[in-house]
Specification:
It is a single chain. This protein has about 625 residues and is an alpha+beta fold. The chain is about 40% helix and about 20% strand. It contains 20 helices and 23 strands. The chain has a six-stranded mixed sheet with strand order 1-2-3-4-6-5. A five-stranded mixed beta barrel has the order 9-15-14-13-16. It has a three-stranded antiparallel sheet with strand order 7-21-22. Helix 10 runs antiparallel to helix 13 and helix 12 runs antiparallel to helix 13. The protein is globular, with a radius of gyration of 29 Å.
Length: about 625
C-alpha cells in the first residue's frame, strides 16, 4: 500500500482526497512505498494540475513530477509521447508511469487521470540534488544584464534546437493547406450564441426570442466563419446562427458546438438550467441561436479598452510615436488563403520558456499535450519568441520601442548577419535591453531558418511571420494578462502584418524613422544585393513627399539601391549581347560605358499605391532611360 503525504500547503484539504485516489491508481513499473507531495508547479493546462513529489522506494528517494487532469487531455499527451518521443533524444524528459486508463482509447473523457514525468534534475544530470530553472528565468537575466547571462541563454537555445531537430523538425515536408485548419481552434471561440429552448427528441437547441420588432438576418457556417474575422460588422448583432449539424463538447460547465467543415467552435449560452443531462459529450445536435458576440469584435474591444493609448483609424493601429497596419485586417487572408507547399513537421506545440528546463545549463523539454505531426514547422519557434517578447522583455518598453524591435527583427531575417549586428547596435544605443532582446529573438529565427535548406524553395520568412502573427492573435483571447504583454502582442501582430505585405513595407514608417532605420535597411539591401523589389517601391512612394532638396539622403540611398538593382538585373543580358557581338563580327572593340543615373521619382504615382506595379516603380523612371537606349 502506497502512503501519500501532503507536505505543501498549496493544496487545499478538500482536494487532497481526490488526489490521493488518483495517485493510488498509477501503474508503476516499480511501485513506491511513499509519495510525498512537496509543491504545485506552474505551467499546467487549465483543467490540469502539476505536482512536484518525492517518491521513495526502499531507502532511495527520487523527485518526480505528477500531472493530474481529465482523460481527454492526458490521453493525447501520453499518446504523443509514445508515438513521437519515447525513443527520441535526451532532450525530452520521459513519462515514466501513467494511470491504466491512459493506455487505451475510449475512456471517460472527464475522468481524473495521472501521468508521471521523470524529474529534470535526475534525468539530465543523474542526481536530484542539482539546481533547476526554467528558460524564462534565464532569458530574463539575459535581457536585463547581457554579457555572460546572454551568452548562456544563446548557448542553451542553440543546444536545444540542435538536440530536438532530429525528432521534430528534420521530419519536415510540404503540403497544400489553409492555416484555418490548424489555427482557428487556437484563436478562441468564433462566436457566442444564446438559446432558450431545448427540443430533446429532435436533438435541437434553438432560440425562440428574436429581439422585439426585428427580423434578424441568418448566418450559416460559412457566413459565420467570415464574420468572426471582421470586427467592424455592426450588422451582425442579434443575427440568427444556424448549424444543421454540430458536435457538442463540454468544457467543464461551458457548452461548445463544433462544426467541422469550417473549423468552427461556438459557445452556447443557455438559460435552461443544467443541460448536461440532455446534451451528451460528442453527440450531434442542430443549433439555432442568437449571435451575442464574435471573436474579432471581442478581441479588438479588449485590446483598445485595455490600451487606451492605441487607436484604430485609417487602416492603421496607432500609438504614441509609431503606427502599423491594422492587425485585424490581415487576418482573413492569413487564415483562409490556400497556401501551396506549406512546410510542416512534427512540433512540440507548446514551446514556451516555462516548458524548457535548464539543469546546469543543459536544456530539456516537458509537456507534450500539443505535440502533433503535419503542423506548421515554424509554429514552435514563433511561439517561443512570442512568449519571450510578452513575458521577458522589460514591462516599461514603450509602444514605439516594441515596433522598432519587431521591424528590425523582420529585416534582419532577410539581410544577413552583418546587418543584424548593426541593428542590434542601433537598438542597444537607444536602450541596452532592446539590443539584448534583439539578439535573443533573432537567435530563434536563425534556428528556424536552419531547419530548411536554402535551395528548398520554402518561403521561410513569410511562413515564420504568419506563425508569429497568429500567435499574437491567439494571446488576445486571454482575459488575464498584463498591459505590457498585450502591448507586445499588438506590436508583433502589426509588424508581422507589415512584413507580410512587402509592397506596403514602409507605408506606416514616419519620416524620422525612415531617415534612421529606413536608410540603414536600404543601405544593407544594397550591400547584400538582396533587393526586395516591392519594399523598394514602397520606400520610393513613402519618401516622395519628403524630398526637399536634390541631395537629400533619402533620395540618395534610393538612387543607389535602385541603380545597383538595375545593374544586377540586366548584367547577364548585357554580357550575352556583348558575347554575341564579339562572336558575329571579325573586328570588335569592347567599350565600357558608365551611365550616370539621373532623374527623380514620379510623384504622381503616390496617389495610386493600390494599383502600382512594384517593378515599374523601381525600373521605369527617366533615370533609367539610358538603359532602353543602350
Amino acid at each position: 500500500m502506497i502512503k501519500i503525504e501532503f507536505a505543501s500547503n498549496q493544496i487545499a484539504k478538500d482536494r487532497q482526497g481526490q488526489i490521493d485516489e488518483v495517485l493510488h491508481q498509477i501503474d508503476w513499473q516499480d511501485a513506491p512505498g511513499n509519495i510525498r507531495i512537496t509543491g504545485v508547479l506552474t505551467g499546467g493546462r487549465s483543467a490540469s494540475q502539476v505536482l512536484e513529489a518525492e517518491v521513495r522506494r526502499g531507502n532511495q528517494t527520487r523527485r518526480e513530477v505528477i500531472k493530474l487532469g481529465p482523460y481527454q487531455e492526458l490521453r493525447g499527451e501520453f499518446e504523443a509521447f509514445h508515438r513521437f518521443l519515447e525513443k527520441a533524444s535526451a532532450y525530452f524528459i520521459p513519462i515514466v508511469a501513467v494511470t491504466p486508463d491512459l493506455n487505451s482509447v475510449g475512456g471517460d473523457p472527464e475522468s481524473r487521470q495521472a501521468l508521471v514525468y521523470a524529474h529534470a534534475t535526475s534525468f539530465v544530470a543523474g542526481s536530484s540534488a542539482q539546481a533547476i530553472q526554467t528558460f524564462e528565468d534565464a532569458a530574463k537575466r539575459a535581457v536585463a544584464h547581457g554579457g555572460h547571462d546572454l551568452e548562456e541563454a544563446l548557448r542553451a537555445l542553440d543546444d536545444l534546437f540542435r538536440g530536438i531537430r532530429i525528432a521534430l523538425y528534420d521530419r519536415w515536408t510540404t503540403r497544400d493547406m489553409a492555416l484555418r485548419d490548424v489555427w482557428n481552434g487556437h484563436l478562441g471561440e468564433d462566436a457566442v450564441i444564446a438559446i432558450d429552448h431545448c427540443v430533446r427528441n429532435k436533438a435541437w437547441l434553438k432560440s425562440n426570442k428574436p429581439p422585439h420588432g426585428t427580423t434578424p438576418s441568418r448566418l450559416y457556417p460559412r457566413d459565420l466563419a467570415e464574420a468572426a474575422l471582421c470586427p467592424d460588422r455592426d450588422d451582425l448583432k442579434d443575427a440568427m446562427v444556424e448549424l444543421d449539424k454540430a458536435t457538442m463538447r463540454w468544457w467543464g460547465d461551458r457548452l461548445m458546438a463544433e462544426e467541422a467543415a469550417h473549423s468552427l467552435r461556438i459557445e452556447i449560452l443557455a438559460g435552461l438550467g443544467d443541460l448536461k443531462a440532455s446534451v451528451k459529450e460528442g453527440s450531434e445536435w442542430k443549433v439555432e441561436g442568437r449571435l451575442v458576440e464574435w471573436r474579432a469584435r471581442k478581441h479588438r474591444d479588449r485590446l483598445l479598452k485595455r490600451l487606451p493609448e492605441l487607436a484604430l483609424q485609417s487602416g492603421g493601429l496607432e500609438g504614441s510615436g509609431a503606427r502599423v497596419p491594422d492587425p485585424f485586417a490581415a487576418l482573413p487572408d492569413v487564415l483562409d488563403t490556400a497556401w501551396p507547399k506549406y512546410v510542416v513537421s512534427v512540433v512540440h506545440g507548446d514551446l514556451n520558456p516555462r516548458n524548457i528546463l535548464l539543469v546546469e545549463g543543459k536544456p530539456c523539454l516537458i509537456d507534450y499535450a500539443y505535440t502533433r505531426e503535419n503542423e506548421p514547422l515554424f509554429l514552435d519557434f514563433a511561439r517561443l519568441e512570442g512568449c519571450l517578447t510578452r513575458d521577458v522583455l522589460p514591462e516599461d518598453l514603450t509602444w514605439k520601442q516594441h515596433i522598432r524591435l519587431q521591424r528590425l527583427l523582420a529585416w534582419a531575417m532577410l539581410l544577413g548577419k552583418e546587418a543584424a549586428d548593426e541593428f542590434a547596435r542601433r537598438l542597444g544605443e537607444e536602450r541596452k535591453e532592446l539590443g539584448w532582446a534583439f539578439e535573443l529573438c533573432l537567435s530563434i529565427r536563425r534556428a528556424a531558418s536552419d531547419c530548411v535548406a536554402e535551395d528548398s524553395g520554402v518561403e521561410w520568412p513569410r511562413d515564420y511571420l504568419q506563425q508569429l502573427f497568429l500567435f499574437a492573435h491567439l494571446t488576445l483571447k486571454w482575459d488575464r494578462q498584463t498591459d505590457a504583454a498585450l502591448r507586445a502582442s499588438a506590436a508583433m501582430a502589426g509588424v508581422a502584418a507589415e512584413g507580410l505585405a512587402p509592397e506596403r513595407s514602409f507605408e506606416y514608417w514616419d519620416e524620422a524613422v525612415l531617415r534612421g532605420d529606413g536608410v540603414a535597411v536600404m543601405e544593407w539591401m544594397r550591400r547584400e544585393k538582396h533587393f526586395v523589389v516591392p519594399a523598394m517601391a514602397s520606400f520610393a512612394q513613402r519618401i516622395a513627399p519628403m524630398l526637399r532638396k536634390k541631395d537629400d539622403p533619402l533620395g540618395a540611398v534610393l538612387r543607389g539601391v535602385r541603380g545597383d538593382f538595375v545593374r544586377q538585373e540586366f548584367r547577364d543580358k548585357g554580357l550575352a549581347i556583348l558575347h554575341d557581338l564579339e562572336k558575329d563580327h571579325d573586328v570588335y572593340v569592347n567599350l565600357q560605358a558608365f551611365i550616370e543615373l539621373k532623374g527623380e521619382l514620379n510623384t504622381r504615382r503616390v496617389s495610386r499605391r493600390s494599383a502600382v506595379d512594384a517593378r515599374r516603380v523601381v525600373e521605369d523612371d527617366e533615370m533609367f532611360a539610358e538603359r532602353e537606349r543602350l
